Amino acid sequence: MSESEDYGLLAYRILRPVAKKYGKKVFADLQKDLFKAGMKMTVEEYFAIFLLSEIIVVPLFFIISTILLYTAIGDLVTSLLGSVIFSILIAISILALVYVYPANTLQDRSKKIDNALHFATLYMATLSTTGMPANLMFKILSGFEEFGEISKISRQISEDIEIFGYDIPESLARHADNVPNNGLSELLWGIRATMLSGGDLNKFLEEKSKTFTNLFKRRLEEYVQTMSLFMEMYITVVIVGTILLIVLSTIMGMMGGFMDQMQTVQVLFIGLGVPFVTTAFILMLKTISPTEV
Fold first, then answer.
1. Which of 17, 88, 122, 257 could form a disulfide with 209 if both were Cys (CB 3.0 to 4.6 A apart)?
2. What is the DSSP string of 249-277?
3. CA distances in angstroms from 56 to 64, 71, 74, 184, listed in the order given
4. pLDDT (tens digit per residue) in 151-168
């Protein structure tokens, strides 16, 4: 059990009565997102995590901010008022974070599925040329971690069939409605329809693999164009900007007689500012990369 699951279990044990009473009322529209995002918890459990986080973080932040403000300004009333305002903002921020987290996780899963869907479909098309049944294809696909989220969903389909006794069309319909990606949902529905109608599954998978491959090529081209744009921005902002800042700050320091202060600014900018901006550029490129599965 992971640390997040331990925390969720603890929160639900402590706040179960409140969570059962208000969870579905407050987070009524999050149940489907929680399920599609692969978060194995109910709305009540998620609401309990939110409440416990508020109970721990907000009072702790209030105490620390009061001490820091009082140390800085020396006025207790102003410090308390400022801490109350900051604590309210923190409470709202936690609520916003908790509310959007499932949707963000869902989008991340969908993007990873998009990145691997053409490979997985091509592999299934290859397996289908041997006459292999669909349930066995999903079982084999579940063993390849290279397909990421698709492997996990294939494992769930295989377990439905082997452990819970679903037939393959029933299991496909069950998961097609709940996967976080429209392309994969379309693929599962298509496989089901082809099987039920007695169609050529191999031909269907070959056509879908071509479609998904073309879509992936288009996304790669867009990614290359975006990388080029980011590279030009990086050269302009970081490299040229750093040189320009050093030259201007040196001239200003020499003319104003505060060269030591300017040298401090230059060291801080080069030592902290440049790595921060570089890291931000790397993270943005990683976020939009079409290769992460």
1. 122
2. HHHHHHHHT-HHHHHHHHHHIIIIIHHHH
3. 13, 23, 26, 40
4. 999 999 999 999 999 999
Largest CA distance in the chain: 86
- Summarize pLDDT for 15-65 with one digit per residue, the tens: 999 999 999 888 888 888 898 888 888 899 999 999 999 999 999 999 999
Is the same domain home to 169 and 221? no
Instruction: Identify which of 102, 105, 114 has the alpha carbon closest to the alpha carbon of residue 293.
Output: 114
Predicted TM-score (pTM) of the model is 0.79
Instruction: Give yes or no for a contact between 213 and 118, defined as CB atoms under 8 angstroms apart.
Output: yes
Question: Is residue 37 included in any domain, yes or no?
Answer: yes
Written as six digits, the tokens of 37 are 């995002």
* Contact yes or no for 143/151 (Cβ under 8 A): yes
- Report whether 43 contacts 12 (CB < 8 A): no
CB atoms within 10 A of CB 149: 24
131, 99: one domain: no
Domain membership flag for residue 293: no
**CA 211 distance to own-chain centroid:** 26
- Within this chain, do residues 116 and 208 fall inside the same structural domain, yes or no? yes
Q: Within a domain: residue 78? A: yes
List the domain range (segments joined by +) for residue 273: 216-288
Q: Read off the tokens for 79.
A: 């410090």
**Of 197, 214, 231, which residue constitutes the final position of a domain?**
214
